[in-house]
Amino acid sequence: xxxxxxxxxxxxxxxxxxxxxxxxxxxxxxxxxxxxxxxxxxxxxxxxxxxxxxxxxxxxxxxxxxxxxxxxxxxxxxxxxxxxxxxxxxxxxxxxxxxxxxxxxxxxxxxxxxxxxxxxxxxxxxxxxxxxxxxxxxxxxxxxxxxxxxxxxxxxxxxxxxxxxxxxxxxxxxxxxxxxxxxxxxxxxxxxxxxxxxxxxxxxxxxxxxxxxxxxxxxxxxxxxxxxxxxxxxxxxxxxxxxxxxxxxxxxxxxxxxxxxxxxxxxxxxxxxxxxxxxxxxxxxxxxxxxxxxxxxxxxxxxxxxxxxxxxxxxxxxxxxxxxxxxxxxxxxxxxxxxxxxxxxxxxxxxxxxxxxxxxxxxxxxxxxxxxxxxxxxxxxxxxxxxxxxxxxxxxxxxxxxxxxxxxxxxxxxxxxxxxxxxxxxxxxxxxxxxxxxxxxxxxxxxxxxxxxxxxxxxxxxxxxxxxxxxxxxxxxxxxxxxxxxxxxxxxxxxxxx
Length: 498
Description:
- The protein is an alpha/beta fold.
- The chain has helices spanning 9-18, 64-73, 88-98, 141-154, 174-186, 213-220, 227-241, 279-292, 297-311, 322-335, 344-356, 373-384, 396-403, 412-420, 437-443, 462-467, 483-495, and strands at 2-3, 23-28, 30-43, 50-63, 77-84, 103-109, 117-123, 126-133, 160-165, 191-195, 208-209, 245-249, 255-259, 262-266, 341-342, 361-366, 388-394, 427-431, 447-451, 471-475.
- A 10-stranded mixed β-sheet has the order 1-14-13-12-11-10-9-2-5-6, sandwiched between helices. Strands 15-18-17-16-19-20 form a 6-stranded parallel β-sheet, sandwiched between helices. Strands 4-3-7-8 form a 4-stranded mixed β-sheet.
- Strand 16 (361-366), helix 12 and strand 17 form a beta-alpha-beta unit.
- The chain is elongated.
- The termini are far apart.
């Protein structure tokens, strides 16, 4: 198992911006979520229970309906197939879905069953009680046939299909689940399955299975108390269920992505958790849209993980928008600048991790005292030659030895932070030596980049990089661009002032 490399913000932004308008089919158990809010000031005289003074209530779609709601909020065109009863909660859901923009809904009426309803009673921020009304029988054969017809009708043009199975009957038979998977594959679309069932044989052939920690343990029959155990269980479940991949959600510990290439751990985010209701639905929606937009599964899981970390900070069965995801990515970019400045030990581990993922690691170095267009050009050319770029930065002490007692103008932390803010710079590592030879030997880059004012035989580290099969590149330089000349011009302008 490997840990996923840190995020490329620009790549994730581009992904989140690319999925607007994509069509996604969602099939499963729709339900009605009621939230009744109030305050408690006394205990009932009839029994030792609190009395809730009701102040207001809200109603929203739950289950597969909430997955569809998440998709709609993210800008997708949603096709939703489910089953409802011939009752007021069912009619209320129909009215809700009728008001959604860019959505099409087919709720098959089953007069023999009640619409699933969950009612939560909340005092302040504390949930006191949840009352469920539900029918968990499998669908009758004639209702199954109607659901399959609806799936086949509405699958046309869909770029992803989500099976939202809450164990309420709609997806209990292999006849329906296999028709759903066939409809997805007929459209060359991935099928993402979120099922509460421990027997997942009906989903054989699906592309992605998304259990939480408890569901992973129940379905695999293996312990999942730590990351390593959960990774082993995810690998085993992928084979048992005969699915393409397993994406296991582990709450604050993030996610595990298990596919034929192995297992990747997507670390969690430290957030203030207000309410976890519906976080899994958000993961389903973002996974589906990211895969529909062509993202690799690990990258889709990373973005879904971030979206879920946002939604748990909201009350109730909440959703997240693309704008919120983009805003968080940009804020994280500011917060993450210091995280891009690594110790030698951290840098060595990061370089090894990137190479293990098949990424080409690049390295260039310098003082980078007053950043100018020549620096920007050099860094841009270096980044274009690799997948991930390290900048080796001379420390203050080594800069003084190289440039004289008046340099650097900016201290090493300031210079490192400026470099870390650049999109083309993936990591910064400071070295104390006069040359970067030791840090190059430690990082073992695949590509070493220096300016064309050098010849390859004069580039420090060129021989060892070429010795392990790496490449040395001499980047074009912008003439007349240097920190020394900038300082000289500034002094001349100052001395010439009245």
